Amino acid sequence: MSFDDGGDLAELYREVIVEHGRKPRNFGELADANRHVEGQNPLCGDHLEIALRVDGDTIADIAFTGSGCAISQASASLMTEAVKHASVADARTLFDNVHAMLVGAAGGDAAVDPAALGKLAALSGVSRFPTRVKCAALAWQALRQVLDDADATTVTTETSEP
Ligand code: ZN
Question: How far is ligand 1, taken at its centre, from the CA of residue 33, in Å?
Fold first, then answer.
């Protein structure tokens, strides 16, 4: 597989999104969660409920349920996979990088090298479609919100930039 060919790379990204959309990781309830947040993207009808168990400075466990387009569900799947067992600080850094990738690329100027983000680079594929950026950003916005404020309940894309 060649990474020099933009077409192949786009196809690879698409496959990651489709695969995570079909078989989302960490999908389900989390019985011993100590934080919950709900994410809504009214533009597309995406809805996520994310539950975490934060032990000290570590995201000990995370799960989500939801419905909506494949991109929102795949992004939530990729997000939970990426931050499970990570430190809260690392999760924040990851949010910053994904956010920069989505917003930067949407502005035509990639602020982050997608290759540095591993599998999460697949989300860069949606940045060419501005209406889809909110779908991809939803899970990440909800994650940041619940890490910033343990009492956070709902994040809506209409009231926050991607
Ligand atoms: Zn969507």
Answer: 26
pTM over 0.90: no
Domains and CATH numbers, the chain: 7-155 (3.90.1010.10)
Q: What pLDDT digit, counting tens, does each position of 66-102 carry? A: 999 999 999 999 999 999 999 999 999 999 999 988 8
Q: Specify the 3-state DSSP secondary structure of 46.
A: strand
The per-residue b/e assignment along 59-79, b for 16 or more CB within 10 angstroms, e otherwise, is: bebbbbbbebbebbbbbbbbb
**Distance in Å, CA 47 to ligand 1 centroid:** 9
Q: Could you tell me the distance, in angstroms and rounded to a whole number, from the CA of residue 131 to the centre of ligand 1?
A: 8
d(CA 131, CA 151): 29
What is the distance in A from the centroid of ligand 1 to the CA of 132?
A: 6
